[in-house]
Prior knowledge:
Layout: H1 5-10, E1 18-23, E2 31-37, E3 45-49, H2 58-77, H3 84-87, E4 101-102, E5 108-113, H4 127-144, H5 162-175, H6 185-193, H7 200-206, E6 213-215, E7 224-226, E8 232-235, E9 242-244, H8 246-257, H9 275-289, H10 295-301, H11 304-322, H12 334-351, H13 353-363
Antiparallel strand pairs: 1-2, 2-3, 3-5, 4-5, 6-9, 7-8
The protein binds adenosine-5'-diphosphate, 2-acetamido-2-deoxy-1-O-phosphono-alpha-D-glucopyranose (GN1) and magnesium ion.
Adenosine-5'-diphosphate binds near residues 112, 115 and 222.
Amino acid sequence: MPVDLREIFNSFTPEGTYHSGGPYGTGHIHDTFRIQTAEKDRDDYILQRLNNRIFKNIAELQHNIERVTVHLRKKLEKIPGSNIKRECLQLIPSKEGRSWITDANGSYWRMYIFISNHRSYDIVDSPGKAFEGGKAIGRFQAMLADLPGEPLHDTIPFFHDIEKRLETFFRTVKEDPAGRVKNVAPEIDFIMKRTEEMKIILQLGREGRIPVRITHNDTKFNNILLDENDKALCVIDLDTVMPGYVHYDFGDAIRTAANVAAEDEKDLSRVRMDIELYKAYATGYLSETSETLNAVEKEYLAFSPRLITYTIALRFFTDYIDGDNYFKIHHEHHNLQRARAQFRLVESMEEQYGEMKKIIAQLS
Ligand code: ADP
Ligand code: GN1
Ligand code: MG
């Protein structure tokens, strides 16, 4: 059944009237649409058809986001000069008063105010932007540190658990459901060579040397919106805000903010981690978190981009072998291309690891 965006829009309680709507952004998970309203002085909106194959409990997912956005808004209200509408996602209630609806096809939808005049980057081209991204994530973690109430729901259990991700990978390789394993021996070898060293963050957690905090868990740079002057504006994509280690956020942000090439770059000779972008992000991040992180957390920040880049590469690669059931793809071998680019990025980080550690030590 075709989607009637106007009808979906009218199931919520927006201020403006529907004028036009179309696909928006480059996210890999939901179907995102921007809705423009007829009135010049009214907000535009973001409508999202939620991926409920990936997020299995939409009520819990939305409950998390309601709690997180209400808490952030309360914090922002206390900061003079803040622009709450642009600095925090705002869910629009449905006519029934819930934060999501289901349509005639059984699909789930939610609506946010469109954050006006933002800039979003898939590739970061200056240390200034990387610094702002680091500040935004540092501040986000700090503001959520005192979220009252029960722990947030695990919207995707074991999301960054590399041991579980590896188990899934080995099972998928064994089953070979799409018949693709025969062509990817070097990539499997890349994964195999690094399995043990990747377990260190989980190990530190088990030993109680790093605490579980509230983390974002999907700090890809295009989930951090900047303003018209390229200053930190708003952290979006709150689906995976849940208990985690700070390393997951630091690592994923560096994976995207410090890679000079696209996440799925085909020409591997162009993929490289830029140490200046890394340093700038780390400087911004630690300017907000230096007081709260413990010494072990700080010590392992430099390792975390290697872990998360390896983890995301593993997930793209597993999805490729599985026949592309998770990430949206734009051509047949897209997930393999993404995985290869991320493998190359892991190597670039390995080459610069000494320098990465030195920078964190200097900033700590
Ligand atoms: P996905 O999980 O599929 O990545 P996101 O929630 O990140 O979905 O949304 C996809 C894209 O839509 C974002 O990268 C951003 O460009 C845009 N976007 C999402 N929410 C908003 C918003 N409230 N205002 C402006 N742009 C938004
Ligand atoms: C997905 O939702 P999006 O596109 O911002 C994914 C992340 C991956 C990322 C890789 C819920 O992020 O974990 O790192 O793609 N989100 C989910 O680009 O799986
Ligand atoms: Mg996103």
